[in-house]
Recover the amino acids of this structure.
């Protein structure tokens, strides 16, 4: 018979580079260590980070979650000559992938880990390593369940010499034009990682996804039933994970957007952000500026001038064109500083989110009930845009180009679309319905709450085994 134990399960979290991966891991750390789930949590941090947003986030995250242990792993310098010109975040994934088998085992032993939860981008090294160490290994997929089904199915698609749209069993068609751009090149570093990670998934002990059953019922059911990949491990839907309330770190430049937002009428502001790791091309940036100006609406716009924030020295006035900031003064707030997006989206003045459809941004919009105008630009974002549009929480301007495609979306079209989506009461009502479903999922007894509790129960079972 199993002996009982009062010890909390010790879970080590292994995130990857970029805010889109780090933020949900911080949220997972908060949820697992909360009084509801009472786990002993350690969070690995790979140093140096890829961006200063990550360093600042880590500093304030650990200050906000004193019970979560920090395990620093200093990455050896990576010889990037094999993949010159690769996206710096993908190069960071690769550095972490190469370092993990060597550097992680002693840290896991020192932490007396009962389970490892690894980021999807490290799955192909973390899963076999954990097996060798006889440690249960869970993989956390930080985008939508629909994207996860595509990710898991992609090796099968390629093995069958797929070269058109992908028909993901039980989920539906993913048009080739929605594939992350890098996947059109078999030799690309990202494609190699994507394939290796996808192939490793069936050997994981379980898989986590930051979504909830009611948002993507088909994808969740198809993953859980083994329809996408036969013999797939258990899938735990744990979202939308709640942002951690944290004080800005000393490194973060405080922006004055809060005072400005407080002074705006309810639901009058279009919040515009394309995430933490991509910059629009200068011509497109200019058209967007013109579109926001011509829309006539108030707007809060977070502008990025470079892929990695440390390289972003561009001046806002130069980026947006002469006279723009003066013309929109009072009506438009433009910043290059980090904003607390979770708080912005909860602010009553915000009526629409023009978003690149990074999955964290979409989960935050969904949890806040703010309708999305989806303008995916890169990677998994078209698949994510499809999810939010299908759920009725957003409108997707599907014809708008993304990175690598010809065609600049013109200011007049942006203005007209913003006006029509801001006036769409049906969308607003539906977004509120989806928000309520999200709140039910994470509340005690909800699908995501129960799913996380089941994950914790499984981790605890390892301690209780005879
Ligand atoms: N974010 C933020 N403030 C900013 C820019 C981004 O809080 O000024 C957060 C955003 O709320 C989200 C994360 O950074 O949690 C970005 O992740 P997402 O998956 O949306 O997109 P990515 O940046 O990975 O493309």
């Amino acid at each position: 018979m199993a002996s009982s134990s009062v010890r909390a399960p010790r879970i080590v979290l292994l995130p990857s580079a970029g805010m889109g991966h780090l933020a949900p891991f911080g949220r997972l750390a908060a949820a697992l260590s909360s009084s509801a789930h009472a786990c002993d949590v350690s969070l690995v941090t790979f140093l140096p980070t890829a961006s200063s947003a990550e360093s600042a986030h880590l500093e304030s995250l650990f200050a906000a979650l004193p019970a979560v242990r920090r395990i620093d792993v200093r990455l050896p310098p990576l010889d990037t000559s094999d993949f010159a010109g690769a996206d710096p975040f993908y190069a960071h994934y690769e550095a972490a992938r190469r370092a993990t088998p060597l550097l992680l085992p002693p840290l896991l032993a020192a932490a007396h880990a009962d389970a490892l939860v690894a980021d999807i981008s490290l799955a192909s090294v973390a899963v076999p390593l954990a097996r060798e160490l006889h440690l249960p290994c869970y993989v956390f997929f930080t985008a939508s369940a629909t994207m996860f089904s595509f990710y898991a199915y992609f090796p099968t698609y390629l093995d069958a010499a797929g070269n058109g749209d992908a028909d993901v069993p039980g989920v539906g068609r993913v048009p080739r034009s929605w594939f992350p751009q890098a996947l059109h090149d078999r030799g690309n570093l990202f494609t190699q990682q994507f394939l290796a990670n996808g192939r490793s998934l069936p050997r994981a002990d379980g898989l986590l996804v930051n979504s909830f059953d009611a948002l993507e019922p088909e994808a969740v059911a198809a993953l859980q039933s083994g329809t996408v990949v036969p013999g797939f491990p258990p899938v735990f839907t744990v979202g939308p994970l709640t942002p951690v309330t944290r004080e800005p770190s000393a490194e973060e430049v405080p922006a004055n957007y809060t005072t400005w937002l407080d002074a705006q009428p309810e639901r009058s502001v279009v919040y515009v952000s394309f995430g933490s790791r991509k910059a629009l091309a200068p011509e497109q940036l200019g058209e967007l500026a013109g579109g926001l100006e011509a829309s006539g609406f108030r707007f809060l716009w977070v502008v990025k001038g470079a892929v990695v924030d440390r390289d972003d020295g561009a001046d806002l006035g130069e980026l947006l064109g002469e006279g723009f900031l003066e013309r929109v003064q009072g009506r438009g707030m433009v910043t290059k500083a980090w904003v607390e997006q979770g708080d912005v989206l909860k602010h009553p003045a915000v009526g629409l989110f023009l978003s690149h459809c990074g999955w964290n941004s979409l989960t935050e919009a969904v949890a806040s009930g703010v309708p999305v105008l989806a303008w995916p630009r890169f990677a998994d974002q078209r698949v994510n845009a499809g999810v939010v549009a299908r759920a009725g929480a957003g409108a997707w301007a599907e014809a708008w180009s993304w990175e690598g495609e010809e065609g600049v979306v013109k200011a007049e079209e942006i203005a007209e679309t913003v006006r029509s989506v801001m006036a769409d009461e049906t969308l607003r009502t539906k977004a509120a319905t989806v928000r309520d479903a999200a709140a039910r999922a994470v509340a005690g007894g909800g699908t995501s709450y129960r799913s996380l509790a089941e994950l914790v129960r499984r981790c605890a079972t390892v301690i209780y085994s005879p």
Notes: The pocket of uridine-5'-diphosphate is lined by residues 18-20, 23, 273, 275-277, 302, 338-342, 358-361, 364 (CB under 6 Å). The radius of gyration is 22 Å. The first strand starts at residue 10 and ends at 14.
